[in-house]
């Protein structure tokens, strides 16, 4: 992989992306060949330098017009906003201020109509260290995070003392089989055919004071899985009683005392339902029946400012929008830019968008808010989440993962990104497109999607390091979902390459006269 491709030298944090050169030739036997190659190489180099970059630049003017430094400036603003909101841009903290900044930029320099789409989002927080204690001949205080966890969205604060434990038969999935749990702590050891939320909620309805899920013995740690309806919406229930997860061995002990053993559970948590919104900017030109939705999420997790995750995606989306406006771009297909809210709480913003547009669902704001997009008019979705992980790998979503009607078009989108990386001789890898970001509601509702990203908490292997450079045995983003996800966590080379990949796809897709036919595979 070339380490110098004519890019301005940007601040690079950890060497991500610079691959070691591998010398495969044995010098002594091929000296003359080398000389010939060298001359050829110089010739080629002059030719490439003289012609390719300029023609490539002429063929892809929008891609080259995108300035990484401007994206960085938006990130500086996001960080400033986070610092004024308890170091976070989550739904409960700096999200609204981030959206106001984006809106202001769009008003001043954009070429689209700004619309807000409001929805409710549950916000969950653990405010103090919880306690779990078994009373018996020998009392045991269990250790938080080692022996037990509070599952996410697992209830309001509670102070339960000396409550009997009862083990629930089956997976707590069939009300008739559950038995008497009223005023008891329900222990569930065998997960059944329903989700953790369905089991926990059924137990709460039957009067349980708390629910404890024991993990199978092979797991050494308790779980922080979510006990909430995945695509929660206004009106749906949330857990009120505490829901804990314990390791298999703690579960075994609790089961052995069930019947006469008693426990204390103390939690200091909160679930609040807050109003948040998606920020949508609907383009003024281009064919509305062939709309391209370019999205990224604007919120961060509560734990940190989210400058890579996912500020890098939303800042890039913003700058793509502003750059196209500056260049007076006239797309053939209409462009709609979206900054989703509440992604970190389970893609709630993009799910809300799909629910309202695809399914005609109404919440109490639907009638007063105008969103000028019809679901059947959306040709595709491009999603840009994390684009600047310090130890990055350029990742392209695998279109074949998209189900049913969305698959063919998603494969086409994947190819467009691959063409960009191949043209620049940048290394990249295909990654799945199953879960984890805002493309999900699109592919699940028949709309092709795709996108690029640079990786999160997963470790880079030695083989990947050989191909993609950077550090082996280190996370692609060590600061993923942590308070150190700040400007220092931004790899400028990654940001440069990935944001231009994004711009490339936006320009190629909205520049085609036959976008729908192209996505159907009918046209090349
Ligand atoms: C600020 O964040 C810290 C750490 O996440 C948390 O403990 C604290 O309660 C937060 N304060 C406010 C006012 O939200
Ligand atoms: C919980 O209840 C116990 C016993 O009633 C009490 O000693 C303890 O202070 C309570 N804890 C909280 C946080 O209220
Ligand atoms: C893409 O996904 C399909 C199935 O979803 C899988 O068979 C294929 O191997 C994947 N491709 C790559 C390059 O990972
Ligand atoms: C690319 C990537 O890792 N994006 C992350 C953005 O935030 C969501 C929600 O926490 C993660 O699941 C995604 O993985
Ligand atoms: Zn995240």
UniProtKB/TrEMBL annotation:
The lineage's top-level taxon is Eukaryota
Q: Which family does it belong to?
A: Belongs to the peptidase M28 family. M28B subfamily.
BP-aspect Gene Ontology terms: proteolysis
Residues in domain Peptidase M28? 284-505
Q: Write out the transmembrane intervals.
A: 30-50
GO MF annotation terms: metal ion binding; metalloexopeptidase activity
Its needed co-factors are: Zn(2+)
Which SUPFAM superfamilies does this entry report, sorted A to Z? Zn-dependent exopeptidases
- Organism classification: Eukaryota, Fungi, Fungi incertae sedis, Zoopagomycota, Kickxellomycotina
Which organism is this protein's natural source? Answer: Coemansia biformis
Write down the InterPro entries for this protein, in alphabetical order.
Answer: M28_fam, Peptidase_M28
Top-level EC class, please?
A: hydrolase
State a single Pfam family of this protein: Peptidase_M28
Enzyme Commission number(s) of this protein: 3.4.-.-
Which keywords does this Swiss-Prot/TrEMBL entry list?
Hydrolase, Membrane, Metal-binding, Protease, Transmembrane, Transmembrane helix, Zinc
Q: What is this protein called?
A: Peptide hydrolase
